[in-house]
Write a structure and sequence with these properties.
4 helices; two-stranded antiparallel sheet; globular; mainly alpha; 120 residues
Length: 120
């Protein structure tokens, strides 16, 4: 089960909408301990990762401690730096557009699969 949307948004706000590894924008919320291994959908088990870092580090159990440490360090830096409310509002809107884009792309990918099946 994925994280609840309010928790995802809280993690993104806390991380200033940036990846805790590479600091890129457009983050996904990663389960540090996967649900299959007993990980819960709670703030302490969530890490903001961009799609590339999520793919590169997310499935590696040896990186869990490191991801947690990077996340905590990034949260600390974000808490110390002030972010203008307009920037947070813009980041929230941009994140919403990115999510919509991902949904449209997933829908198009499904349609392409159906078309390929019909052609076969």
């Amino acid at each position: 089960m994925p994280f609840p949307e309010p928790l995802k948004h809280e993690v993104k706000l806390k991380a200033h909408f940036r990846c805790c590894v590479c600091l890129n924008y457009f983050v996904e919320i990663h389960h540090i301990v996967p649900e299959a291994d007993g990980g819960l959908d709670v703030m302490d088990n969530a890490a903001p990762l961009c799609p590339a870092c999520h793919e590169n580090f997310g499935n590696n159990p040896d990186k869990r401690k490191t991801i947690r440490q990077m996340r905590d360090q990034w949260y600390e830096l974000c808490a110390k730096s002030e972010t203008h409310p307009d920037v947070l509002q813009f980041s929230t809107k941009l994140d919403g557009l990115y999510t919509e884009f991902q949904n449209v792309k997933a829908s198009q990918d499904k349609q392409n699969v159906v078309l390929q099946d019909l052609r076969s």
